[in-house]
Amino acid sequence: MIIWKLVAIAVIAYLLGAIPFALIFGKLMGRVDITKHGSGNVGSTNVLRTVGTKAALVVMALDIGKSALAVVLARIIMGNDTLMVGNFSINWQVAQVLAGIIVMVGHNWSVYINFRGGKGVAAYFGSWLAMSPAAALFGGIIIILTASLTRYVSMGSILGSLGVLILMIILTLFSGFPPIYLVYSVIAVVIIVYQHRSNINRLQTRTERRIGENGPAKKPSSLTEPPGI
């Protein structure tokens, strides 16, 4: 019975995560196919650059909401059922983490748009909003501060996810926080960093676009400053 519950949770989380709100509202509010504009990424940052702030905020809220909903549904579906596998307990916390991971997979590789998608940041923090609002707030503050100071959304996203990972390490070691949430943080950071690999390369070469820039950043002159960050 529990196995079928986990299967149902995974399917629901994937189908929810796969809803391409960025593509939908790019067309509704800007009449553009964002997969053919900007970076081509199906996420709120590309919506911000190609459609505008209002559409980007709507998309971000919906991406966060769909992930939070997936985790809430996982908790409801699993209930208080528990399955012991050796010394490992498969319970509602495991169900939440499963939903969190799968909703990111759905967001990044959506079946609705030929397995294209976003980079998983909003989906990740939406999951934390349902599992631990304090962790979501902590990572969100890092994202906002980093993006505000550097105007690099990608840097803020990476540092925000790493910040939550560090927080989970501390809470797991010193506050008895369930280790499964630390496992989730590790897996999510790997996914987010992988999805941002091109951004990381552009950050290193100083060609990453900042907030407010419509075109690619200018390459630094090798005569005046060294490459990298």
Please, could you describe this protein's structure?
With 229 residues, the protein is mainly α. The protein has one domain. Helices cover 67% and strands 3% of the residues. It contains 10 helices and 2 strands. Strands 1-2 form a two-stranded antiparallel ribbon. The longest helix is centred in the N-terminal third of the chain and has 26 residues, at 53-78. It is globular, with a radius of gyration of 18 Å. It starts with a helix and ends in a 24-residue tail after the last helix. Residues 215-229 have low confidence and may be disordered.
SSE blueprint and pairings:
Layout: H1 2-17, H2 21-30, H3 44-50, H4 53-78, E1 83-85, E2 88-90, H5 92-108, H6 121-131, H7 133-150, H8 153-174, H9 179-195, H10 197-205
Antiparallel strand pairs: 1-2
Helix pairs in contact: 1-4, 1-5, 2-3, 2-4, 3-4, 4-5, 4-6, 5-6, 5-9, 6-7, 7-8, 8-9
Q: What Rg, in angstroms, do the CA atoms define?
A: 18 Å
Percentage of residues in DSSP E strands: under 5%
Overall, the morphology is globular
Helical residues, percent: 55-70%
Number of domains in the coordinates?
1
What value does the average pLDDT take?
A: 89
Oligomer: single chain
Largest sheet: 2 strands, antiparallel
- Could you give the order of strands across the largest sheet? 1-2
Helix/strand order: HHHHEEHHHHHH
Q: What is the tally of beta strands?
A: 2
Distinct helical segment count: 10
Q: Give the CA-CA distance, first to last residue.
A: 52 Å
Which stretches of 5+ consecutive residues score pLDDT under 50? 215-229
Structural class: mainly alpha
